[in-house]
Amino acid sequence: MQRISGSLWRWWSGLLLCLTLSAVAQADSVLPSWRDRTARTAIIAFVQATTTQGSPDFVPPAERIAVFDNDGTLWSEQPLYFQGAFAFDRIKAMAPDHPEWASKELFASVLKGDYKTALAGGEKALGQIILTTHAGMTSDQFNAIVADWLRTAKHPRFKRPYNELVYQPMLEVLGYLRANGYKTFIVSGGGAEFMRVFAEQTYGVPPEQVIGSTIKTHFELRDGKAVIVRDPDIDSIDDGPGKPVGIARYIGRAPIIAFGNSDGDLQMLQYTTQSSSKKRLGVIIHHTDADREFAYDRKSINGKLDKALDLAQSSGWIVVDMKNDWSRIYPFEQ
């Protein structure tokens, strides 16, 4: 056998080293804001298993559906759901045209900034605020109001626009899944029309892949222009058991992957992971980082995580410890 010269051997060794380093760098580039712990490993392993030809868990591209809750899963939700903050700001903006609100308790509390009292009436009070601020206009007018609010409103703690408080690790998951042939949907209790204003630019999720709560609408011709008018009446609530119903209605396939963070996502997680004997992935984002974001679960008004957390282990769901699993939370972090 002909001996390999020293220079050729060094070239060959160098090539092998470069290839090895390249493979390591490529692996590290996947979900870079996730620490190398169980959650990251499980997500990558699941994607590889379901997208590799010949794998027993291979899923055809048409069936690769991933669903994501929005509030508390893709962006923050404390100290108040962001759509709730929008509604309260709208009450203040509309108040000059409604002097009677100053003596009407629900609206008076909002105008004084006493949101706790305003929301003491529960879903009925919140529903009244939503319908008052979200109806009586065309869809185009509503979209313009939401877009303007996102440009000007700031989060009370971080002093940044609300749509900057998205989770960098989740943006990476969305991109990673789409790069591997998955179609990503938002399935949220928030308003579908509200989320569609920013979802494509913020998450890369187009409007037709956003499922949420809706109010009733009707068609009109106004000055020769066709418009959709928003009515002061609830159409559907996309939360809890409403989520799998919405998925079945608008997607028509059970998801392969589901990400949530609260008991409002419980049925969506169950529908994803328990509707088939095939390999499925359920993930819960657990808010454990009070320093960089917020720490809450069982006793929280927003994003209460109790029953779903208890069922996670027996259901095989991955629980993401935000404090320990994420090296970075927001895109603006250094």
TrEMBL record:
Keywords: Amino-acid biosynthesis, Hydrolase, Magnesium, Metal-binding, Serine biosynthesis, Signal. Transmembrane segments: none annotated. Pathway: Amino-acid biosynthesis; L-serine biosynthesis; L-serine from 3-phospho-D-glycerate: step 3/3. Its EC number is 3.1.3.3. One of its GO terms (biological process) is L-serine biosynthetic process. InterPro entries: HAD-like_SerB, HAD-like_sf, HAD_sf. One of its GO terms (cellular component) is cytoplasm. Its cofactor is Mg(2+). It catalyses: O-phospho-D-serine + H2O = D-serine + phosphate; O-phospho-L-serine + H2O = L-serine + phosphate. Residues 1-27 form the signal peptide. GO terms for molecular function: L-phosphoserine phosphatase activity; magnesium ion binding. This is phosphoserine phosphatase.
